[in-house]
Write a structure and sequence with these properties.
Order of helices and strands: HHHHHHH
Largest sheet: none
Shape: elongated
Strand content: under 5%
Number of domains: 2
Helix content: 55-70%
Number of strands: 0
Distance between the termini: 60 Å
Structural class: mainly alpha
Length: 185
C-alpha cells in the first residue's frame, strides 16, 4: 500500500526548510516560505485525519482542516529532527489537537445559539400589538418545539481548563469571600 505522505522525503524537506530558516535568522532577513511539498504534505495529513471515524460527521470539517493546517504551519519550526525522525506523527498530533479545539469552540457556539432560542420570548414575537388575536408563525413554533425536544443543552460546556481561577472582579461579592476562604485552606 502506498502512503500518501513519504515520511523520509517529508523529513528531508523539513531539514532543508529548517536550514533555510536558521540562515535567514542569522542574516536577519525574512523567513522563507514553506515549500509546496511541505504544504501539500501538511494538507494531506489534515485531510486524511478528517476522515477518521471520530471526526467524519461534523458539518464544520473544513474549519477543522483549516485550523490544523494553520497550527502545523505555525509550529513547523519547532520540529527537531534530532529528537524525532517521524514528522508525520508530529504533524498528525498537532492536527488532532487542532480538531479537538475546533470541536470545543463549535460546541460553545452551538450552546449559545441553543440558549438564545430557549430564552427567546416567542409570545412577544407572535402577538401583534394592538390586536387581540394571535397569529401563529410556523417557523417560530418549529424552533420552540425543537428547543423543547433537544436533550443535553441545559449544561454549560466546561472550559478547557476547569481549574483556572477566575479574577476577583468577575466573581460576585458572596462568591469572592468563599473563594478567598478556599485559597487559605
Amino acid at each position: 500500500m502506498a502512503h500518501y505522505v513519504d515520511n523520509k522525503a517529508f523529513l528531508q524537506a523539513l531539514v532543508e526548510h529548517g536550514k533555510a530558516v536558521r540562515k535567514a535568522k542569522r542574516l536577519k532577513t525574512e523567513k522563507p516560505r514553506v515549500s509546496d511539498y511541505l504544504g501539500t504534505c501538511i494538507l494531506q495529513i489534515a485531510n486524511h485525519l478528517s476522515f477518521k471515524p471520530n471526526f467524519i460527521n461534523y458539518s464544520f470539517k473544513d474549519e477543522m482542516i483549516s485550523d490544523a493546517v494553520e497550527n502545523c504551519l505555525m509550529y513547523i519550526e519547532n520540529f527537531d529532527p534530532k529528537k524525532s525522525s517521524n514528522p508525520f506523527a508530529y504533524f498528525t498530533q498537532i492536527s488532532y489537537y487542532a480538531f479537538l479545539r475546533r470541536i470545543h469552540k463549535e460546541k460553545r457556539v452551538q450552546h449559545t445559539k441553543q440558549a438564545y432560542i430557549e430564552n427567546l420570548d416567542i409570545h412577544d414575537l407572535v402577538v401583534i400589538k394592538g390586536d387581540e388575536t394571535e397569529y401563529a408563525n410556523a417557523i417560530l413554533a418549529n424552533l420552540r418545539s425543537h428547543a423543547d425536544q433537544s436533550p443535553g443543552y441545559t449544561v454549560v460546556p466546561e472550559s478547557p481548563n476547569k481549574y483556572r481561577r477566575k479574577p476577583k472582579y468577575l466573581i460576585p461579592d458572596a462568591e469572592a469571600d468563599t473563594a478567598d476562604q478556599d485559597e487559605e485552606t
